[in-house]
Amino acid sequence: MKVGTDGVLLGAWATIDHDPYNILDIGGGTGLVSLMLAQRCDAEQIDAIEIDASAYEQAVDNFENSPWNDRLFCFHTSLDDFMDELEDEAYDLIVSNPPFYSENVSSGDAARDVARQNQSLPFEDLCEAASLLLSEDGILAVIIPYKEEENFVRLAIQNELFPIKMTRVKGTPTSEIKRSLLAFGRISSVDLPVDEIAIETARHEYTPEYIALTKDFYLKM
Predict the structure, then answer these.
(1) What is the pLDDT of residue 88?
(2) pLDDT of residue 103
(3) 3-state secondary structure the chain
(4) What is the pLDDT of residue 191?
(5) Distance of alpha carbon 191 from alpha carbon 88, whole angstroms
(6) Mean pLDDT, the chain, as a whole number?
(7) Which fold would CATH assign to domain 5-217?
């Protein structure tokens, strides 16, 4: 579970215009998205939950060695167990780069397969949890496969979370859409902004749009 483009996109794209006081990263992996949000905003509390032991341990090390270690907290737990332990906690921003490798194929790495299997964090569970955990003005931001966009939006609306922003992601300007960045809030948006971003024009040659979005997080861009 190394640094991946999906995580970079979500960490750079997630909405912080509402100045979140606290943030929850569901399925935090090694802490990439949480660290990016700590760099982008002044949230007092950024909690990440991660079920995989090795990823959790790496996240803890990454958090402790970051300049924002007083605001970052990681919990080795499932979403269900985390919610059982909460007492009236509400988050202003929830982010998730959820596992969506739904095909029954082994990569040869058991931990990676568990992390990627959609069954380990069904979209239904994620939407339901966000509905319960978000503050009144809170926002849910996710990155998912484009082919799952319609289904995820439907599940979110069933939990009274409505799309407020969408960005569809292509590998190159001429390739098919592969990912959807989606943001949801409790109030339905009359004018839903939808745009597209391409990552590269050629191998390791990034588009101006991708550079503008992510340049603050790359050492060489």
Answers:
(1) 84
(2) 42
(3) CCCCHHHHHHHHHCCCCCCCCEEEEECCCCCHHHHHHHHHCCCCEEEEEECCHHHHHHHHHHHHCCCCCCCEEEEECCHHHHHHHCCCCCEEEEEECCCCCCCCCCCCCHHHHHHHCHHHCCHHHHHHHHHHHEEEEEEEEEEEEHHHHHHHHHHHHHCCCEEEEEEEEECCCCCCEEEEEEEEECCCCCCCCEEEEECEEECCEECHHHHHHHHHHCCCC
(4) 86
(5) 32
(6) 90
(7) Rossmann fold (3.40.50)
* Residues 10-34, mean pLDDT to the nearest whole number: 97
- Look-up of token digits 């990016």: 36
Q: Is the pLDDT of residue 2 over 60?
A: yes
Residue with tokens 């996109």: 9
